[in-house]
Amino acid sequence: MNNHTHHHNGSIVLKVTATITVIFLVAITLNQIILNRHINDTIEENMEETVLRTAEQTENYLSTRVSGSIERLLYFKAESGLDSILANYFANPNAAAYSVAMSNLAAPLSAKKVSDSLISDLYLYTDYGAFTDGSTLLTPGFSLEKVALWSEIREGNSFLEFCTVRNDEIFRSRKWVVPVLYRFSVSSAQVYSSTRKCILVVNLDCKEIQALIRKIVPEAESAILVLDQEGNPVTCVNAAAEELMREPELLSRLTAAENTVLDVRLDGKRYYGVARKVSVTPWTIVCLQASTTAREESRSYLQLLLVEGGTLIMVTGMVCLLMLHWFTAPLRELINCQNVRQEFCYEGNDEIALLTKSYNQMLRSSNEMLDREKQYSHQLEEKNDAIELEQRLKRRAELQALQAQINPHFLYNTLDSIRWKAEAAGAEDISQMVRDLANFFRIGLSRGREIIPLEQEICHVRSYLDIQKMRYGDRLDYQIRIPEELKKLYTVKLLIQPLAENSIYHGIKESDRKGTILITAGEEPGGFYLCVRDDGLGITPETLTILNADLKRGVTVSDGGYGIFNVNERIRLYFGRDYGLELRSCAGEWTEAVIHLPKYIPERTEWDVSDFDRR
């Protein structure tokens, strides 16, 4: 059965406040997204209207200005006396008459040029010679019939014609101009005569057109491009217009979608673009409006929304925090009562009152349970102490009963008699065996003492191993390596001999090779250890795990291991459960029985070293 535990840390006030704040944040965020989208759509519509309005204003202003220049040009013919001057010259077209006509025409041509800033220069062409105001020099070797403009003059037949933009081919200034051709005749009937044709070439200055447009499109984010009938740029206002000239496909798309706003990109920037025809001219205006203005306007709206939303969230959070702090004040008092385990008084009929009632009932039940638990624990401790005392007395009684069955003096006297008879008979080995047996019994009985010096415990196991060595001969050998400083410590008697016996009967005896028992000791944290190691058959890992588990639990180990169980239990009985016996082994190679003991020296000892034969 799986138990699922959920940990909830933190104040409920903060949790509820955070929850409400998050809800408000989500709601405000969604509202801002929707509102921002609506604002962006509105701004885009405004930008489209702006670019359309800019194109319309530019077209109206430019067409008005150009049409004004053309209208004044038509009036110029009648007002300047141009007909009479040319008629007099055509009547007698000689050099003298040409000079008179040039002198008479210079003043009105110059006045017309000066009065209109759009006009760069004027050139009057007739069948009998050409006339200028004389203020600008002609291109050296100039002949109208030899320049590119002549093809447009020759092919056209309209009285008013706009030519394509070009460098001035007539005058030395070489300005970028748009030649406008005004065809007329000087006959009295005012009927056009191909034999008496007159053409007034009016060069419109492209820079003046650009300056004219800049007056109404001053913003850096707007760009105007004016194209002639062949798609050549008459003028460009701002860099975006120049960049557009390097994108012929995009320019064609704009001019094809006349009066329709398109979303275009130039040099990684977004623009709103629209194309519009200029009335009274064959020109086309292309207007570009950068979306940067729209983005800045949208960003300002978004920042305003964020400030308003953040302020609203902060105010909402503070109000929720204050209200929840007031609502949960009784809960905090209840928590304080819980910390000191006292009942809580609360008047009301809300959920906190129900919680208070449940808490008080739980506290009373808990106190009753604690009282019963303390009483039961006290009874259990008394019972365990009684059982432990009973077991200790029982084991001591069993040991004393066993010792009582043996008359020590009778046993020692009998063994001494046997030893003297063996020595008298020359049986030294029998004498030695009897001496070892006497020491073995003398230390084992120890006058009823349970705690003996480690030195006596070593002497006891040495006597036992000497007896066994006489029995097994070369099949058994042993070594004892105990530091002198440890021999002064005291321990429970009869610890090492059962382990040595276990090594002989379960390790060496069943092996077909010579066996060696090594007994060592050493210090360790919290005490010292005794180790009995044999090189017999060893213990399998499975059996070793079971044996150590039984020793740890304090139960009789399996497979007749009563001796090691007895050793382990007597250690734990006298020194506590922190000490005891553990087994180590490598199957087929070796086994170690390790005893962990405290460093113990009793304050008063009655052990007499003369009671045993120390060798």
UniProtKB/TrEMBL annotation:
<keyword id="KW-0812">Transmembrane</keyword>
<dbReference type="Pfam" id="PF02518">
    <property type="entry name" value="HATPase_c"/>
</dbReference>
<dbReference type="GO" id="GO:0000155">
    <property type="term" value="F:phosphorelay sensor kinase activity"/>
</dbReference>
<dbReference type="InterPro" id="IPR036890">
    <property type="entry name" value="HATPase_C_sf"/>
</dbReference>
<feature type="domain" description="Histidine kinase/HSP90-like ATPase">
    <location>
        <begin position="491"/>
        <end position="601"/>
    </location>
</feature>
<dbReference type="InterPro" id="IPR050640">
    <property type="entry name" value="Bact_2-comp_sensor_kinase"/>
</dbReference>
<keyword id="KW-0472">Membrane</keyword>
<feature type="transmembrane region" description="Helical">
    <location>
        <begin position="12"/>
        <end position="30"/>
    </location>
</feature>
<feature type="coiled-coil region">
    <location>
        <begin position="370"/>
        <end position="400"/>
    </location>
</feature>
<dbReference type="InterPro" id="IPR003594">
    <property type="entry name" value="HATPase_dom"/>
</dbReference>
<keyword id="KW-1133">Transmembrane helix</keyword>
<keyword id="KW-0175">Coiled coil</keyword>
<dbReference type="InterPro" id="IPR010559">
    <property type="entry name" value="Sig_transdc_His_kin_internal"/>
</dbReference>
<dbReference type="GO" id="GO:0016020">
    <property type="term" value="C:membrane"/>
</dbReference>
<protein>
    <recommendedName>
        <fullName>Histidine kinase/HSP90-like ATPase domain-containing protein</fullName>
    </recommendedName>
</protein>
<dbReference type="Pfam" id="PF06580">
    <property type="entry name" value="His_kinase"/>
</dbReference>
